[in-house]
Amino acid sequence: MAVTQAGTLYVVATPIGNLGDLTARAREVLASVAAICAEDTRHTRQLLGAVGIDRPLLALHEHNEEDIAWKLVERLRAGESLALVSDAGTPLVSDPGYRLVREVRAAGLRVSPVPGACAAIAALSVAGIPSDRFCFEGFLPAKASGRREKLAALSGESRTLVFYESSHRIEESLADMAAAFGGEREAVLARELTKLFETVFGDTLDDLIAKVAADDNQRKGEFVIVVRGCEDDTEARLLEGQRLYAKLAEHLKPSLAAKLAADISGAPRKALYGGGE
User: Fold this and answer.
1) Cβ(83)–Cβ(33) under 8 Å?
2) In this predicted model, what pLDDT tens digit does every residue of 62-99 receive, in sequence order?
3) 34-58 burial by CB neighbour count: b if 16+ within 10 A, else e?
4) Distance between CA 238 and CA 64 in Å, rounded?
5) What secondary structure letter does DSSP report for 89?
6) Cα separation of 165 and 34, whole Å?
7) In whole angstroms, what separates CA 220 from the centre of its chain?
8) What pTM value is reported for the model?
């Protein structure tokens, strides 16, 4: 009796705007799998129609991923190969798919990447900001308090920072970044990458804020913000110490909070708390 060979889950990157960025291998894989798991089947159907591919689509998004992952694992075990795509770019980068990939790997089945477009990497490649070390932060919290707390925690980060943002919050996020990092911090705003109205500009966060405020078009579309990391080690330690002190002081005496924050961050204790030794 022949043993059925298990299928493969292909994680396929799709264009972030320009259809020409769909690779030949991605086309081949999408045309050959038993079904395609898509974040938004309507969006993916349009993409497939544009490149002449007709395959069954399965909705896989944050609300149903955990519930259907096991069913997809069973299909793979039965010998079917599947593809996973997001609305645009590389799946799992601020998009659903993590739980499915984890379940497939846990089952001992093959997961294979089909690389291609990624907005974060595309923006980083044209920003002119150090890219040898960077951290991707994705979308910031929608609520102002959460967003500001997150940015405060990153204020002393020495690596280049990469964020995604929507048109609804681009002005607020840039303002909060300037408040957390300083308006003179070098930054680049990449908008609508690979699309008709692509723009990439920057100098400092204050410069970005002014340009976005002066041009309605710069408040439309999808954005990647690239911010240079904190270059001053002393400043980075102080910023981290101040952040830690503020959190610890909510629960501890100021003197003890300052001591712990200084020990953890390396910042001078006196700079965090004026109570002396």
Assistant:
1) yes
2) 899 989 999 999 999 999 999 999 999 999 999 999 99
3) bebbbbbbeebbebbeeeebebebb
4) 44
5) B
6) 34
7) 19
8) 0.82
